[in-house]
Amino acid sequence: MLDFDFRDLESITMPKFFILTLFLFAFSNPILAQSVDAAAQTVKIALAQEPPQLNNMTATDQVSIFVLGHVMEGLTRYDRRGNLAPGVAERWALTEDSATFWLRKDAKWSNGDPVTAHDFVFAWRNVVDPKTASQYAFILYPVKNAEAINQGNKPLTDLGIEAIDDFTLQITLERPTGYFLKLTAFVTTFPVQEKFYRAAGSAYAADSKDILYNGAFRISDWVHSASLKMEKNPNYWNSEAISLEVIDAEYITADTRARLNLFIDDKIAYTQLDGETYKDALNNQFRIKKFVTGSVYFLEYNYRPERITHNKKLRQAIQAVFDADEFVNKVLQTPGNLPGASLFPSWIMGVNKPFRQEYPAVVTRPDLAKAKQLLQEAKAELGLEAIPPLILLVSDSPTATKQAEYMQGMLKTKLDLDLKIDVQTFKQRLAKMTNGDFDIVGAGWGPDFDDIMTFGDLFASWNLNNRGRYNNPEYDRLVRKAMNSNDPEVRMAAMAGLQTIVHEDAIILPMYEQGVIYLQHPKIKGMRRTVVGSDPDFTYARIVP
Amino acid sequence: MLKYTLGRILSGLVTIWFIATATFLAMHAVPGDPLMNEKATTPEIRENLARKYGLDKPIVEQYVIYLGNMVQGDFGISFTQQNRKVNDIIQDHFPVSAALGILAITFAALGGILWGALTALYRNQLPDIIIMFLVILGISVPSFVFAALGQLLLVNINQWFNISFLPVAGWGTFAHMIVPSLVLGLGTMALLTRLMRSSMLEIVNEDFIRTARAKGLSPSRIFFQHQLRNAILPVVTVLGPQIAAITTGGFVVELVFAIPGLGRYFVQAVQQLDYTVIMGTTVFYGAFLVFMVILVDIIYGFIDPRVRLK
Amino acid sequence: MIPHPALQADDFTPERSTDSLEQLSRPSLSYWQDAWIRLKKNTRAIISLYLIIGLALFTILGPFLWTKDPSAQDLDQISQAPALPKTALLVSDYLPWTPPVDQGHPAEPTGYPDTLDAVTGFAIVGTPNTQSIRLTWSPVQDAGGYSIYRSESEPSGLQGLGLPLETIDAGNILGFEDRLNLKSQTYFYSIIPTDGLDEFDVVTTLKVTPVQSITMSQALERGLIDPSDAPGRSVSLAFHPFGTDYLGRDMLARLMQGARVSLFIGVVAPFIYVLFGVFYGGFAGYLGGKIDQFLMRFADFVVALPFLLFMILFKIGFGIGPGESGILPMLVALILLLWPSTARLVRGQVLKIREQGYIEAARLLGGRPSYLIARHIIPNTMGVILVTLTFAVPSAIFTEAFLSFIGMGVAPPTPSWGSMCNEGVKTMLSHPHELFFPALFISITVLAFNLLGDGLTEALDSKMRSRE
Fold it and tell me: Is some CB atom of chain A closer than 8 A to the CB atom of B265?
C-alpha cells in the first residue's frame, strides 16, 4: 500500500458547508401558521384518507361522509346540540304513510341556483336506480317502491317522491317509519342538481369543481391525497350562523402517530388517539377527551348446516368463558370502550331513556365450569370426540389481529379449543364472509341512522349483511313487528325480545362497544362528536381567542 | 449507435408487455371480489358495477381491452376512488415520489462519495472507524426504524427549541422533504460509502497513480484529478438501479411522513383490490424502470465504446 | 597416450532424485484452504461467523433451553419491560362492584349552577390492587355528575389530568371502579364535578399505589399455586428476562420463534433461488447461442418487474389460508422474483471461464464436457456464488421485515422479527423494548452476514492471493 501524506487536504470543509446550507434552507422556509387562528377563524386538521367518493348518492365511508356533511345539506340537519333541525326544508309534516316537506326559498347551490324539490326527486331516483349501484340505496327503502325499483322490478318513476312545485316535496311511504325524518339528514338523501350532474358526466365529484355545494362550506382546494380545504360558503342560507371561515385538512394520513406528532407540533387541531399513541399524548400533558363511536364489535358465527358453529351449546360455551371486562381492560387498554353485552349499544334511545336502561342486557361473569359442561354437551350432540379447529376470520387491521390472538390463546388455555386465525385483507375477507368460508368472523356494526332498527334487523333472515345466515322465524317476526309500527312502546318491546334471543341463542359474542379518545385544541369550541353522520361536526364550531 | 438505441428501445417495449401481462395474471389470481363492500349489496347492484368496469366479460376479452387501452396510454378509472382516472392518480402522485426519490439519491450520492473518500483518506484511523461504524449501522438497521426514529427526533427537536425547525410530516415545501429523503437515502448512502471506499483503495494501487506521483504532482491534484474521478465511476454505475429501488421503495417513508406519493396508493390499492390502480401503477413503474435502465445503458454507450461493440 | 577412462557400470545408474531442490517453501494449498486461511485472519469476518453460529444456536437450541410457550398470554404482565422476577399478592376472583348511591341526593340538579365546590371525601374503598381500584367520594351540592381522570404523574392544576376514565351522569352516584390495565405503580386520580354537561374547573386529586396481584383462578390456570392455597399469600409471577409484548407473551420465547421465521426465509429463499440461478445461468452460459439468448431474455423480463410491487402482488395472490403463517407464499414470491440476478452472474462467469486458456488446454487433453464442468467450471464459480449467497441473506431478511412491517408479511399469530418490529414501533415511546429487541436481532443478523460476505469476497479474491 502506498503511503503518502493527505494532511494537506484538511481544507475540505464540505460536510460543514453542507450542513450549514441545510440549516439555512430550513430556516428560510418558515413554517407559518398554527393549527387554529381565532382572527381568521381557521382550523387545520388531518384526514385519515383521501375521500374516496364525494358523490353523496354513492358515498359510504367515514371520510367522504365527514366532508359531505360539511359541504352539503339535506332536508333536515342536526343542530349544534345534536337535535334534528330544519335544513333545506323549512318545515314538514309526517304521517303514517306520507311525508311532506316545504323547502325554504333562500337555499341556494354554490352556482347561485335555488335548491328545489326537483333536485331531491332527481337525487333520490338516482340513488335507488339499480344502474347507480348505490350501496346505501336501502336507506331510502321506507319510500314507496324504492326496494322494488332498486331490484330492477319497477320503473324509476314509480318511486314515491314527487315535486308538487319547486318548493314542496311529497313523499309516499312504503310503511310507517317513525325515524324517516332522521334519514333525511343523511348524505345519501342530499339533493343533486340534475343539470350540473349531467354536464359533469362521469367526472361528477372527481374534483372540487365537479361538485355543486349547498352546505355551510364548499371545497375551495383539493390536492388529491395531499390536502383538502373547505371554506365558508357565502351562498349558504344560514351563513350568519357559521363562525368558521376555513376548515383546512392540510394533511392526509392514516398513521395515528404521524397525526399525533402533527398535533404536538401544533399543525393540526384535532386528532384521534389509539392504544399505542395515547401514552405519548399523556406525556405531553394534553387534556384527552373520550367519545363512544356508536359501533358494536362482536364475533359472528356461521350457521350454515355444514359448520359446527350452528351448535348452540358450543356457542354458549364460548359465551360462558369470554370475559368482556377483561378483554376491554387488558387487551384493548384504551379508555372509552365498554364491555360488550348486547347487540344494541348503550347510546341507542328507547322510549324515553336509553334503550339499555329501559331493558338492561343480561351480563354474566365468566363461568369456566359451566363452559366446560356446555362444551361436553356440544361434543355429545355433535357426536365428536374433540371439537376440530375453528376458523376465525378477521381483517388485517392491528386491532382485529390482536383480538384474534387473544381469543386464540384464551380458548386454548380455558377450553382447549383450537382456533385457526385467518387474516385477510379487506376484499378477501368480504368474499370469504359472503361465501360462508369461516366458522367465526370478527365483525362490527356502525349505525347508519339514529334508530334502533339499524342494529335490530341485522340478523333477520333476509338481511344480506347477515353473513352467517342466521335464520330464526321468531327473530324475523319481532323485526317485522317493530318495522310496521310507529308506536315506540311496541317497537321497543319487540327489540327487547330480540335482545333476549341474541343472548339466549348466543347468536353473536358481543366483544365491545367502541370508544375512542381524542385530542382537541382547547381554543375550538362547539365541535360536536356524533354517532351518526358527519363526525366530527365542525359546522357550528368557532375558535376562541 | 442508432441501431443499438433502437434495439434497446424495442426490447424495452417487449419487456413492458411482459410486465403488463404478468401484472394482469397476478392480479386476477388474487382471491376476493373487487366489487364487494362492507355493506352487503344485492346481486343486481353487483352486476351493474361489473358492467361498469367491464368485469362481466370473459378474461381473455378483458385482457385484450386492457392491452388496447394501455397502448393508448389509458389505465382506466379507479374502483375505489370513483370517478378518478388512474392516469390522473399517477400524474398527481408520481412526481411526489420522484421528487422524494431524487432528493434521497442526491443525499445518498453526495454523502456516499464524500464519506467514502474520507474513509479511504483516513484508512484505519479514527474517522474511518467512526464512519464505517455508522455505515454498518445504516446497512443493518431497517428503514422503518429509521423513519420512526427520524420523526420522533424531529418532534423532540421542535419541542425542545419551541420552534418549527422542520415540519414533522406532510408535503408541500422543500422543508417537508428534507428529513424523509434523508431517511430514505440513508441505506443507499451507506451502500455507496462502502463502494466508494473500496473503489478508492483499489485505485490507490493502480499504475497511473504511481505515475502521477512519480511525475511529482501535488497530492491534492492526484486526489481530485486522478483518484476521485476514477473512483466515482463504479459508484455512478450502481446509481441507476438504486434510483429505481428508492423511488419504488418509499412506501414506509411515505406512510410515516404522510407524503402523498404513489407507493402509499399502491399498498392501499392492493388492500382494496383496486384492479385498475394496481395495473396502472405497476405497469407505469415497470416502464419507468425499464427506461431508466435503457437510458443509463445508452449514456454508457456514449461514454464507453466497448459497450456498443458487444 | 592417455588412457580413456573406462566407463564403469555405476556410471549408468540413475542420478539420485533431487526433489528437495524444487521443494516449495510453503505447503501446497488448494484454493479453498488458502481462502480459509485468509478468512481466518479477518477478525471481523470470524466474529461474524461466530455471530451467525450463535444465531443458529439461538434459533435451534434456544427453545429447548428457554421452554416458555411463546403464545402463552400473561395478562397480568402486559408490555412488561425487562425486569427481575416479580411477586404478586394472591387475591380471590374478581366480583363486580356496585358503586354506592346516595338516595337522599338528587341525580340531576334542579337548575344549572354557576359554580360547584370541589369534591370532598375522595377516598379508596378496600385495598387497591392491580385487579381493581375502587374510589368513592361525598356528593357535591348541585352536581349533576362527575368526571374521573387517571394520570401517572402528579397533575398541576387542570393540566395533565391524564386519561379520561369515566363520565358519570348522575350527581348521586358516589363511586367508580377502575380496572383499566393497572400496573403496580403510583396513579393520581382526579375528580371534577359537572352539571351533567360541562366540567367545572375544580379538581380533587388522590394518590393511589396498587399492589401487584393475581387472582386465584389465573394463578391456578398458570400453575403458579396449588388449589389448596388461600388468598393472601404471595406468589412469584412468571419471569420474563426480555419483557413481554402487548398480550403479555414472553419476548425471549417470541424472539426465538420469530428467528425461526426470519432466518428460515432469510436463508432458505436465497439458497433455493441461488441454486436455481446457478443451474439456469450455468446451463445458458455453457450452451450459448440461441438458447442462451432466449433464456437470458426471459431472465431480463423477470428482472424488470418492480420488485416490491410484485412481492406484494404475488404474496396476496397466493393467498394465506386459515391457520397458515404465510411463510411459504413469501418464500415462493422471493424465489420467483430473485433468481435471475444469480443466473446472470453465473452465466457471465461461465462465459468468462469457458474462454480461459486452461479450459482450452483441458479440452485439448481430451477432457469431456462433464469433466470440464465438474473439475473447472463449477469450482471456479463457487467463490462468486458463495459471496452472492452471503449477501442475499440480509436482503431477504430485510424484505421479510419490510413486508411484515407494512402488514403484508407473515400472518399473526406467527411472529417474525419484522412483524414484531411492526408491533413495537407503535409503542416505541412507552415500551421501547418491544421495538428494540427485534430490531436489534435484525440488525445483528444483517450485519453478520454483510461482514462475512465482505470477508469472503476478500478471501476468495485471487488478486489478493498474488499480492501477499
Answer: yes
